[in-house]
Every structure is written in C-alpha cells, then in structure tokens.
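Q: I have 791 residues here and want to know how they pack in 3D. Can you give me a structure?
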Amino acid sequence: MKAASGFLSAASAVALSAALTMPSAFVLQLSAVSVAQAATVSSIDVRGNQRVDAETIRNYLTIKPGQSFSTVDVDESVKRLFATGLFSDVSVNQVGGTLVVQVSEYQVVNQVLFQGNKKIKDAQLSNTVQLKPRGTFSPDQMQADVEAIRQSYSRIGRDDATVSAKTMDLGENRVNVVYEINEGDRTKIKAINFVGNEAFGDRRLSDVIATKESSMLSFVLRDDIYDENRLRADEEALRRFYFNRGYADFQVVSSFGELDEATNEYTITITIEEGQKYTFSDITVDSTLADVPGESLMYLVETKPGDVYNAKDIEDSIIKLTEHLAGMGYAFAQVTPRGDRNFENRTISVAYTIDQGAKTYVERIEIRGNTRTRDYVIRREFDVSEGDAFNQVLIQRAKRRLEALGFFETVEISTAPGSEADQVVLVVDVVDKSTGEFSIGAGYTTGGDTPGPSIEGSITERNFLGRGQFIKFSAGGGKDSRDYQFSFTEPYFLGRRIAAGFDIYRRTRSYDDYDSESTGATIRFGLPITDKLSTQLAYNIVSEEYNLDDRCEVTDPIGQPNGPCDVSIAIIDAVENSPWLKSSISGALVYNTIDDMKSPHAGIFANIATEVAGLGGDAEFVKLTARASYYHTLSEELDIVGIVSGGAGHVVGWGSDDLRIFDHFQSNDRMIRGFEYGGIGPYDANGDNDKLGGTTYFNASVEAQFPMPVLPESFGIRGAVFADAATLYGNDINLQGVDVQGSGMEWRASVGAGLIWASPFGPLRIDYAVPVVKEDTDEVQEFNFGMSTRF
C-alpha cells in the first residue's frame, strides 16, 4: 500500500503541473493512467483520428509496447501530441494491456471567404490572415485575424471599419471561415498643426512629413491617412530635418491625433522644441589604434569648422572612417563621435574616437513579416552577412537602403543574443506595402514637338513578384502623336549592385509637312561609384522612317517640292533616304546630392553624357551634353528655393557623310522658355526659314520657387519666377538647295513666371515667358503647359 500511495502522489504532482498548460480533459485522463497498476502495455490503440495516420501518432509517443513507462513518459507523450498543433484534445488511458490514445483533431479550413470588402481586395486580405485553406482551424487564430484585418483598414484611413468572423460547418471535420466586413466611411485629416516652430513655417514642415491634410486629390494620393506608425515616421523625418540644419537640441515633445466622430476627421497636433542653431567648431579624429594616427584620417571627415551643424555629415563621416578602417584590416573598429556644445557661442566641437571594438560576429540574419518580398531582396541590401564582423554603422546603412526601396510600410532592425557570447542575431522586421500603380492623366501641351491635347496611361510594378524588379508599360498620345513603351529593370544584375534593364518603344509624330515613325530599343546598365556618383552605360538601336505630307511632291532637279508646302531640302533629303537605322552606345556620369527628388531644396544634380553613333546603321556622330542644377534654400521660414542651372552640348559627325538634320540639337523649353520647340538657331532661307538645328548650344537659367500664399499647402502648387538665356549655333548640313543662315553665336533671353503642380500624374508646370532678346527669324511661344522634369 505504501508503494501504491507513493505512485499516486507522484502522479498527482504531474497532473497538477499539466493542469497549468493543458486542457482539463487531459488532466482527468492522465490521473486515470496514474492509478493504473500495469507498468507495461502490449499494444497502443489510437482512436478519434480522421486525417492523421495512427502510426504517425504512435511515433510521437515515448511509450512503446513491451517497455515499462511512468507518468513522466505519459506527460511527455501528450505534450508532443499537443505541440503538433493538430489536436484540440488528447487523452491517454490504460485498459488492461492496451494503452488507449484518444485524440480530437482540429477542424480543417476548407475556404477562407471575405464578404463586404471593396477597398481591399481578397488577395490582399488573404495575405493578411493566418488561417489558410487546407490548414488547421483555430478559434484564437480566427480572432487574431479579425484584428489584423481591422488594422489593414486602419492603415488605409478607415478606422471605423468593423470585422466579425464565423464558421460554416461542412461536415467531415471541415469548415469554411467567413470574415464579414463593414468598411465604413473613409477617415480624413482636417488639419495638421505645429506648435513651437519658429525657424520654419508650418508649410515647410508640412512638406517634410508624409502625412498630409485631406484635399480634393487625397482619393488618388492616399496621403491623408492617420496611422500611428506613419506618425512615428513623421517624427523621425522632422528630427532628421532639424538635425541636418543646425538644430542639435531639437525634440518632438508630443504628436497625436484627435478624432471628431461627428465628421470622421482627425486633427493632428505636433508639438516641438527647436532649440538653438549650432555650427561646427573644432573637428578632431582620436585613434587608439597603434599604427593608425588620427591625423591621417582627417581627409575622410565631412564635417568642417564653421559649417552649420549637420547630423548627416557626421553620419557620412562615421561611414567613411569605418569602411576605410575595415579595408585596412580593422573589421571590428568602432567610430564614436563625441560632441561638446558651447552654449554661449552656439558651436559644437566633434571628436571622432576610434577604438578596436569588441569582436562580435553576425550569427544569422532573421527576416520576419515579409509576406510578399523575397528574403534575398532584403538580404542583399546588407553589406554584412552571416559570419561577418558585426558593425552597427553598416546595419544602419542597410536600414536606410531598405526604407529607400519603397517596398515596406516600416523597417525595424534589432539584435538578439546568439548561441555564443560573441554572436548576435540580426532581426529584421518589415511590413510589406502595395508597390503596384495604375495611373492615367490628360493634359494640354502648348510647347514641345507635338503641341495639343494628350492623354497617357501607365501600369507600374516596383517590386515585381516580390523580386525587387521594376516593370512599366505606358501608352499615350495626342492629336499628332502616339507613344508606347515597355521597361524592365533588374536592380541587382548577376547578384551585384548593378542595375540592368531594357526599354522597347514606338513613337509616331505628325508635323506640318512630314510624319515620323521611330521604333527602338535600349539595353542599359547603371553602376554606383559612390553614394553620390553613379555611371550609366547603354546600347541604343532605333529605326526611323519619315514621310512627306501628300501635299508635298518632290520635283527634280534639286528636289524642290510643289504644292502648298515649302519644306527645306534638308528634310526632304532625310525623308528620301529613310528608313534610317541608328545604332549607338551612350554613357553618362551622374552626380546627385539633392535632398529630396520630389521637392528639392538643397543640393546639386549634374549629368555629363556622351553618345557615339556608327556601330552599324546610317548615323555617324559623337554627341556630348552636360547639365547641372544647384538648389539652395533662400529663406527657410518662407520656403523660398533658388535654382541655378546651366547646360551645354556639341555634336560632330565622324563619317564620310554630313550630319542629318535630325542629328542636330533642337531648342526646347529645357534650353530656353518663351520660344517654340525648334524655334531658334540656324535656318534654311530657301525652306520657309525651317529650323535646321545646331551643332553647339549653351544655356543658363536662374529661378526662385515659393509656396502660393493663397492656396492650401495640400494642393501641392508652388509659384516660380525665372530668367533664361541660350544660344544654339553651328550647322553641318551641306546640300544643294539649302541656304543655311543664322548659324552664328547669337544669344536669346527671356523672363517669366510659372506655376508648378505636384499632381498625382507627375509634376505639371505652366509657364509664361516673354523673350527680351531674340532674332527676327525666331519663333516665339510665350505660354507653355506640360510635364515638368528638371533633372
């Protein structure tokens, strides 16, 4: 009796322990086994299973026929069965020499259905929920999915959406899971108020953050969604903005949104403390590495005494120092900036201290949350991999790269202890977002080579199949034009940071006296040299066909046309010899320090390009072009930006033939405003002063951009005043019957004003320019409306 009593006490302890983690039904059955007198069983009988094979269940047990077992074995066996996630209940009982294992399988999900959803498609919601067809059903998981769906609606501005879930029993242990959704009304943002800002106005700060006030375009832009994660990202954007402009003490005191349930609108209030504006004073590099004196590294430092304090310059300096030291063999070197404020002089001295650093390695990189983007697309943005030295600077750089991709709502990188003391695990948490875009727009262009009304539509996917690839198909046209283009870009060609892609296009144009058709393709490669400098190489091939208007019939001996048109022999020559095949290679160097490509306020964008035609085909020339724009904020408080731009180009033929008229440069609104497309430069005095284009051009422009004082910032409309100057001269056409005039270096100039609209279809611009210096044969066009791309 004592032995039996002891056995029962032990069993009771096991049962009590199991009661903390397992269903009560299991605890009762476990007690029944506990009092069993047999220490062995001759067979194991599995009951209640419908889908899971009985032998599979037996394999999970630690109890085997003919072997003695204890309550510990029973406990472990049942835990194993529950751990499979296949069973809602498990009981074990000994009947004579047989161990009876009774299981209740979870129901199987047959279908996951969504009802009432219109704003979020079924495919997106399917990626949101965890319950999947042919998977195991769990009531707890179903409720978690309800909350996940609600959060998805919150992220698109529908905070009052309601979600409920139910199951439909199909028999044979199968269920359909149905999520019923009431999408509710769209929540808007009535106002965004800044409190505490003095150095920068509300308009300028509104331009910094991603969240915008609701406007008539919000249904397209979707930038007026209140979201806590987006608001946190806006806080970080404000910090970076102020830290990069001298305000080292800046902080966000609070940011929150208040919902007016009557109007379903949020009012967001962001309270900040700007602090004082600082400049750099003493800059030093202190090294504890014996053979690396700090003075020898000063040339790598971006921060300079007297410059306005800039956190990005400090960050860039740390990266340069870290990479340089790693190249010298100091993989674990740690660069730590230490700042010393002088509150009286409002200066900050910075000392970069270099230490050997702890020898810590990356054990593995764990990626979570990416339901669409492939793991390797995320991993390739890291300059470190498993087994490499852990470097916080490179980790932060990877975070910025991932954010810049535009594939994710949020990116968070944290560390966890590895299996050894010198190992760490990088944990990358991301939230995928939609990267597909469909756009359609219409406009009216008064300038360019095809003036008149136009319409354009495009389908773009920036993360094709989650591979990080870019594809775009666009089609458009107007009264006298048709354009079709397909583009594809692989940003990591052959696993390296080389962008490779191709473009296929067809363009047709109809002019006063002739038509043109161009069908071509480009294969291109882009390679970053530094963070600011990149190079681009391309091969281009295009077939060009020209046809005179039916009114223009050519007669001998010199090809002069009859009829009502009077077109230059240079054009007739190009038409008679068409189709033309142009085969060329081109290369470019791009230097870019622009702070924000969508709304630039500071930095330089420069492009130097060359094209060599003559690798087969009919065209033989070398063309050189250069363009640079410098942006500088003239007034931070009034948000006035100054722009100085300049450009130049030269083309020369290198074969036996002269340049075609279509190989020459033609003037356009990027060269000088206030004149028609091809409105200045050399002309044919025998061809109704048809412009022939030039072999050389120079142009310059100064401009000031500013917010419109009357219109709300959310409209995205800015004003501009400008002055342009340009010259287009030289000509290489030598044909009988062509009288080239106006090939001298005469300058033209214009002044004007414009409106710039950051529309959902791209930047649109209206300019009114008045020529103040021109030639008698120039063709003037004071008003111009079209797409605005100054880069």
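Q: Anything worth noting?
A: The two ends are 94 Å apart (CA to CA). Residues 12 and 380 are 55 Å apart (CA to CA).
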